[in-house]
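Bench notes, afternoon.
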Amino acid sequence: MKYYMVYGITDCPSCLRAAALLMEKDEEYVTVEADFSKTYRRHIRDELNWATFPIVVLVDGPKNIVIGGFDELEKHIGLL
């Protein structure tokens, strides 16, 4: 089972672009909107060691691989 987790904020242009890119490439993804919880945003940034949103994670079976933000996702998708 392979899919992407996109942690983002509703009105974030890069977050929207990340979801659109995954949709365009017919990749399965789940979005987690963290608009109303500063605590959760801080927690997920610290846990995944990524400072900005979106934070894209590839879930591939038992492995979770932090891809990074939109630019990193774009490079990753280009390699598929």
